[in-house]
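Example complex used in Figure S2.
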Amino acid sequence: MQKNIICVSCPMGCGITVELNDNGEVVSVSGNTCKRGDAYARTECTNPVRSLATTVKVDGGIHNVVPCKSAGPIPKARMMDCMNEIAKAEVKAPVILGDILIENILGTGINIVATNHCPAK
Amino acid sequence: MLNYDIVVIGGGPAGMAAALKAKECGVDSILILERAETLGGILEQCIHTGFGLHYFGEELSGPEYADRFIQLVNEKKIEYKVDTMALQITESNVVYAVNKEDGLLEIQAKAVILAMGCRERPRGALNIAGTRAAGVMSAGTAQKYVNIDGYMPGKKVVILGSGDIGLIMARRMTLEGAEVKVVCELMPYSSGLTRNIVQCLDDFGIPLRLSCTVVEIHGKDRVEGVTIANVDEKLRPIKGTEQYIECDTLLLSVGLIPENELTREVGIELDPVTKGAVVDEFRETSHKGVFACGNVLHVHDLVDYVTLESQTAGEGAAKYVLGKKDAPEYITTKGVNGVRYIVPQKVNIKNDDDVKLYFRVGQTYKNAKVVVKYNGNEIISKKRPRLAPGEMENVVIKNDILKSFAADGVIEISVEA
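Predicted assembly (538 residues):
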């Protein structure tokens, strides 16, 4: 199987073609113009990850929500599951930037942390 | 009347970096005026990550990037007033501002730093036909609703404009459960980063229609749909290509304009291309003691560059206040052949440092050459694998080269394909 990927490692945006065998293993990578492209294409085909930035509801804060992010990349396929989990959460003000809002979200080993302060009202 | 050495208008990344640098350069009497309820500017609502890769070597969200500067402003005890609107600057650098606590403020400044940022082009700038139904707003307005207020402004969304803000909002609305039907882009290319096309559109299967625009908005009280159409090479809609798309929200991400009302009113010279002030290498405007930096000067692609530029302006303002700025002898800079503009527009040849010239190109180039000429003679030529309108470029003029120039000379930057 062949997969076409646009590399996002730098602004060049190389079009990369990855050949995969029936077990989903990478056979060859072509079209990249540097090593970073090769690594990006391999990860993107075998275990694509994304960092997630969103908001969590706050009770009693100056705003209704506080921004947060995944402290590390999470599997791309689990992004929407994580969003649903975050949508269920509500934290109490005050929130301090860096506070862990959800620990080890859906067993990914990644924490959801606050990316701003939300003082109490 | 209050007296300060430096008054900074705007407490976003530009204003904070300028104030901090001025303080570091030995000026203690500084006041920042901020219209919003907190410092931080637009970064407060830019909750996605990707900020700070150049300046901090880390990938931060907008609020995290802003917080590093807010902490420093507090630590260095720089005074600021939030919820405060600057109304006017006078010829003699008196700043008028107003807020609920102080009422009208009259502040005499030795130097003023303009750091008001920019705002989005609104629907009125586009002349889209149709009704005035609710549900049409700028992408930044929607961003504030979702990220600060926790309020979703719509369920079925069409986005016009594929700059980074449009792309970021396509992902944000999708993550929050909305259906983003299409992103339309008038130009034959997106000015957004490739990374954002991949991670904000492709990841969610959101189609990007290039050379396409919204020609009509439908709906009485609320938007019910829009008509989109392809455009020809002169950007005119092509008859027969119209397509109706049902939606309840239209987000506009169609360009940013520096917010220069105060600048214009005091008669500061503006650059017709950047729509910001004409400045020298310390970002001093045509009005003595008034400096400008950040998106009010020219729209930046990365906040990291805003920070660097604002530090330069802060240093310039401090030098001015401390009487360390000599009478300048200027050469001018000029973008030609594919280079839309250069900031700074003039450079003092008596400057003792290297000078970085920032510029933007008007179209995409692959394997092109950036050529710098002084009075027609080539002084720098460098190969660039890729140049794009969305990305700010720069060249450095070394001080020994600068010192060899004569007053009234002209530096030209061009692109050779």
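The mean pLDDT of chain A is 93. Chain A touches chain B at residues 6-8, 11-13, 50-55, 57, 63-65, 67-69, 76, 79-80, 83, 97, 115-117 (CB under 8 Å).
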